[in-house]
Recover the amino acids of this structure.
């Protein structure tokens, strides 16, 4: 079956806050430190046991390569792929770097909304908006604090209004 | 009822609970003493000591149970079920009647002898608060009266809340039902009036499962195989223990002739013995399963499905329609061969679970076993709202390679990793290892091909059907109002081939459940997303 079944339905229009790329890079740098430490430990372990220089350097090289990707390319691609939209009827999300995932959450299913931020996002003035259904949570990971608060309030209103309005 | 008029549970509760608790303790002590004082005069002293200890413990348990009973009171006060309990720490629980999902009853042999039951009130609400309130033991009549009152008052209170247009806290969000005016949109999208004290207890349909069918269900169930293995293991242990004891007591003179005797009988005896043990194990497992579901009766009463079953312990549980998240038609491999199906229902919140496990997902069997021909009329009787099952489309032929690709690659890699050492260290076994490896790869391929063949999906006006299975066939029906969110996932290979993976999320017990259709046609996935998002 040869047909181009790329998801052609309209891609949600809104994006995340651009500052999130830097925030992600900082997060990845912090997260990458333990990885580097472990890799260097493995490398020194191998070197001490007289494994050839080339072989024992592999773990560190691999870790450095991974970190390089994580700090440069990945956040940019991830930002570019992240799209969202909130209408009266539903919340639409599209995300993914290699595997693209699109999610639809009808407004009638939304139980509540909140915003949250860790210390790194806080420093950049970014918050995460989390939409809760009975089955779990869906998050828009990075919006400017004020935009996040506005969206949260808007969803809260829409969810309530739609419930009362009935089918 | 005023708060001062709260009732007590029946005084016999103390006796029954004490016997239960004390019995367990006595049993454990007995086991310990027997095994430690395996012989000699110390055993007499041990016996006395044991008796004294047991009496002391029984007394302590009895006293504690009496205190618990004395301080336990319950009753309906205003629009709440009020329970006050505790002698050391006083606890007071007030459950709004509107939050009561179902009222279940349970009675073990002891209680049944005295005509009493234990009531279990299941409430709507997350896992944060205790989902269950137990009242026991009370006489059966009292229990039935209380239950009728609770369910009716609950329905009335919910209708009132709905009519006044406020969501409040009484309508659980996991019900997924839109509320408008005085009606409640149910499973099928139609509306029916919430009963307000009307024939809420009228039995609309009843189905009883006969003993033969139950035995068949037990024989073909997955649980029986597991149980058989356990029983066999226990029997093997006992044989070993017996041999050890014989050794200890009789010494070699007992063992030698025994071994010679059995060796003489030879292989035939051994096989015969093994078969006999397996049969006994199977019989025990089947007996346990049948006794657990003895007299299985499923009834449709008002807006709930009631299940009553059990021989030694009789339980009665209700599944309110509002809490039903999905309905599964299951054809386990053996049952499928015989043309039999079973139906189970997944409920949200702490639903009634037939195997007494408060697991995160609460799946209740509504029809343990029935023939395919009977299925239609049974579902029409018990769950008419769900009698239509969407027409299912299988996943496209082109997706077979997706089902095979990753697992085969992984299997091949694992095999290489395992056979390479064999090749290097013990080359003479390589052929064997390679042969086994190829057989394994073929098994994986067959498994995945079967999985691909049974993957299917379908929608009708307001429900989604997801089909899966390898040897058996399982189909799940989800009303659109029970789907909390819908996702479509696509990797670059899928994109090029025009397939995608659909994920429908529903609430199951206190966690979420994913219903996945892998590698389906992406245009159909898009269509389902459109169907889901449309307001109709």
């Amino acid at each position: 079956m040869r047909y181009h079944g790329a998801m052609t339905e309209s891609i949600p229009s809104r994006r995340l806050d651009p500052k999130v790329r830097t925030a992600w890079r900082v997060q990845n740098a912090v997260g990458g430190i333990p990885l580097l430490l472990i890799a260097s430990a493995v490398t020194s372990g191998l070197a001490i046991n007289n494994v050839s220089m080339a072989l024992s350097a592999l773990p560190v090289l691999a870790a450095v390569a991974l970190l390089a990707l994580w700090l440069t390319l990945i956040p940019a691609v991830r930002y570019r792929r992240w799209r969202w939209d909130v209408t009266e009827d539903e919340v639409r999300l599209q995300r993914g770097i290699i595997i693209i995932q699109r999610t639809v959450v009808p407004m009638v299913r939304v139980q509540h909304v909140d915003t949250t931020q860790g210390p790194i996002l806080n420093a950049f003035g970014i918050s995460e908006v989390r939409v809760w259904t009975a089955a779990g949570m869906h998050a828009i990971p990075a919006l400017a604090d004020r935009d996040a608060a506005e969206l949260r309030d808007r969803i809260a209103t829409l969810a309530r209004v739609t419930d009362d309005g009935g089918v | 009822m005023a708060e001062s008029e709260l009732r007590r549970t029946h005084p016999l509760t103390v006796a029954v609970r004490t016997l239960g608790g004390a019995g367990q303790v006595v049993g454990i002590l007995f086991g310990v003493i027997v095994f430690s004082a395996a012989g000699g005069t110390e055993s007499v002293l041990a016996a006395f000591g044991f008796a004294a200890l047991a009496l002391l413990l029984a007394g302590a348990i009895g006293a504690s149970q009496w205190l618990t009973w004395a301080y336990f009171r319950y009753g309906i006060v205003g629009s709440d079920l009020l329970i006050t309990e505790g002698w050391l720490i006083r606890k007071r629980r007030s459950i709004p009647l509107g939050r009561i999902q179902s009222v279940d009853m349970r009675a073990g042999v002891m209680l049944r002898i005295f005509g009493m039951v234990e009531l279990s009130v299941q409430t709507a609400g997350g896992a944060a608060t205790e989902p269950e309130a137990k009242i026991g033991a009370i006489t059966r009549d009292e229990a039935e009266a209380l239950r009728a009152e609770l369910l009716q008052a609950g329905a009335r209170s919910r209708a009132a809340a709905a009519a006044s247009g406020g969501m409040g806290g009484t309508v659980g969000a996991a019900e997924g039902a839109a509320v408008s005016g005085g009606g409640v949109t149910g499973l099928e999208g139609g509306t029916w009036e919430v009963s307000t004290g009307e024939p809420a207890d009228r039995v609309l349909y009843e189905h009883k499962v006969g003993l033969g069918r139950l035995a068949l269900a037990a024989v073909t169930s997955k649980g029986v195989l597991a149980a058989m293995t356990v029983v066999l293991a226990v029997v093997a242990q006992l044989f070993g223990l017996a041999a050890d004891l014989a050794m200890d007591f009789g010494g070699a003179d007992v063992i030698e002739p025994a071994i010679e005797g059995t060796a003489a009988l030879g292989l035939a005896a051994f096989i015969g013995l093994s078969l006999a043990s397996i049969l006994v194990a199977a019989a025990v497992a089947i007996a346990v399963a049948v006794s657990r579901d003895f007299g299985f009766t499923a009834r449709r009463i008002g807006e709930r499905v009631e299940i009553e079953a059990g021989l030694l312990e009789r339980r009665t549980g209700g599944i309110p329609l509002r809490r039903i998240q999905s309905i599964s038609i299951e054809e386990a491999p053996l049952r499928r061969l015989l043309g039999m199906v079973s139906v189970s229902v997944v409920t949200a919140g702490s639903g009634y679970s037939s195997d007494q496990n408060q697991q995160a997902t609460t799946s209740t069997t509504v029809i343990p076993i029935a023939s395919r021909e009977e299925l239609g009329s049974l579902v029409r009787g018990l769950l008419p709202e769900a009698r239509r099952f969407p027409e299912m489309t299988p996943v496209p032929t082109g997706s077979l390679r997706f089902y095979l690709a990753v697992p085969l690659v992984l299997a091949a890699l694992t095999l290489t990793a395992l056979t390479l050492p064999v090749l290097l260290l013990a080359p003479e076994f390589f052929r064997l290892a390679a042969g086994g490896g190829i057989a394994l790869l073929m098994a994986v391929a067959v498994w995945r091909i079967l999985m691909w063949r049974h993957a299917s999906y379908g929608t009708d006006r307001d429900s989604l059907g997801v089909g899966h299975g390898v040897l058996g066939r399982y189909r799940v029906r989800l009303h659109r109002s029970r789907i909390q969110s819908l996702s479509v996932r696509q990797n670059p290979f899928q994109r090029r081939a025009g397939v995608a993976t659909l994920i429908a999320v529903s609430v199951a017990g206190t966690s979420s459940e994913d219903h996945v259709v892998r590698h389906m046609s992406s245009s159909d996935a898009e269509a389902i997303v459109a169907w889901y998002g449309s307001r109709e």
Summary: Chain B touches chain A at residues 165, 167, 173-174, 176, 178-181, 185, 348, 396-398, 481, 483-492, 495-500, 505-507, 512-513, 521-523, 526, 529-530, 532-533, 535 (CB under 8 Å). Residues 42-70 of chain B form the longest helix (29 residues). The radius of gyration of chain B is 29 Å.
